C-alpha cells in the first residue's frame, strides 16, 4: 500500500503560506517544499550571473547547471544555503518576473513533481493545486486582504533590518498579485477542489488547526 500523500497550499504573497506549511509539515512529519523559494533562488542566481530575462540561451545554460534542494528546513542552491540571500524585496520582484518564464517554470515544476512522487510532501506556491500537483490528495487556498498581507510582510522586513515603508510593501504586494493573476502561464487562482481559508482575522494556530483537521 502506498502511504505517500501530497498537500498543496496556494495563495497570494504574504498570506502566511510558508509559515503555515512549515508547521503542518513538522506536525505531520513530512517534507516541506517551498516552491516560492525555488523561484527566488533562480532569480537570485540570474542576478549573480548577470543574466537578463530575454537572454534565452544564457538562461537555458544556467538552468541546465542549476541544482535546488531542501534539507532540514534550508534551501540549497548548487550546494550552498541561500535562506537569507533570497529574502529581499529585489529578489521578490525577480522571482515574480522569472516565474512567468516558461523555461524556468518547466525546470522547477519537473523538480517539484519528482519530489512529490518520491515522498509525502507539503508544497506552497501560486499554482500547486492547479498545475504542479493537480492530483494532490489535499488542497488549500490561503488568502488575506492586501493590507493585512502588506503589514505582515512589512513587520518581517523591519525585523530583518531592511529599510522600507508600509506603502512600498503594499505597492509591491499589489504589483505581485497583478503579475501572478494575469500571467499567461498557470496564473494564480483557486483550484475547484481546494478548501479556501481567509486568514485576515485568524491567528496562525487557528489556520494550522483547520488544515490538520481537514487532513486527519
Overview in brief:
The chain is α/β, with parallel strands linked by helices. Helices cover 51% and strands 16% of the residues.
First-to-last CA distance: 18 Å
> How are the strands ordered across the major sheet?
2-6-1-7-8
Taking pLDDT < 50 over at least 5 consecutive residues as the criterion, the unreliable ranges are none
How big is the Rg?
Answer: 17 Å
Please report the number of helical segments: 9
Average per-residue pLDDT, rounded, comes to 92
Query: Percent of residues in helical segments?
Result: 40-55%
Keywords:
216 residues, alpha/beta, five-stranded parallel beta sheet, three-stranded antiparallel beta sheet, 8 strands, 51% helix, globular
What does this structure look like?
By secondary structure, this protein is of the alpha/beta class. Helices cover 51% and strands 16% of the residues. It has nine helices and eight strands. Strands 2-6-1-7-8 form a five-stranded parallel β-sheet, sandwiched between helices. Helix 2 crosses helix 4 (89-98) and helix 2 (35-49) packs across helix 5. The chain is globular, with a radius of gyration of 17 Å.
Amino acid at each position: 500500500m502506498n502511504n505517500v500523500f501530497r498537500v498543496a497550499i496556494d495563495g497570494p504573497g504574504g498570506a502566511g503560506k510558508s509559515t503555515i506549511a512549515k508547521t503542518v509539515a513538522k506536525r505531520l512529519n513530512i517534507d516541506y517544499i517551498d516552491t516560492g523559494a525555488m523561484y527566488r533562488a533562480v532569480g537570485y542566481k540570474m542576478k549573480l550571473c548577470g543574466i537578463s530575462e530575454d537572454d534565452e540561451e544564457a538562461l537555458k545554460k544556467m538552468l541546465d547547471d542549476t541544482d535546488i534542494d531542501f534539507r532540514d528546513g534550508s534551501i540549497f542552491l548548487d550546494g550552498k544555503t541561500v535562506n537569507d540571500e533570497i529574502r529581499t524585496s529585489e529578489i521578490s520582484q525577480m522571482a515574480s518576473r522569472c516565474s512567468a518564464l516558461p523555461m524556468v517554470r518547466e525546470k522547477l515544476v519537473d523538480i517539484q513533481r519528482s519530489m512529490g512522487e518520491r515522498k509525502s510532501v507539503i508544497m506552497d506556491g501560486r499554482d500547486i493545486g492547479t498545475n504542479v500537483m493537480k492530483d494532490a490528495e489535499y488542497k488549500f487556498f490561503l488568502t488575506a486582504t492586501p493590507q493585512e498581507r502588506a503589514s505582515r510582510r512589512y513587520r518581517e522586513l523591519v525585523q530583518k533590518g531592511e529599510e522600507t515603508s508600509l506603502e512600498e510593501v503594499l505597492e509591491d504586494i499589489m504589483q505581485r498579485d497583478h503579475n501572478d493573476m494575469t500571467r499567461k502561464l498557470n496564473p494564480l487562482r483557486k483550484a475547484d477542489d481546494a478548501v479556501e481559508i481567509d486568514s485576515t482575522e485568524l491567528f496562525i494556530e487557528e489556520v494550522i488547526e483547520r488544515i490538520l483537521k481537514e487532513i486527519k
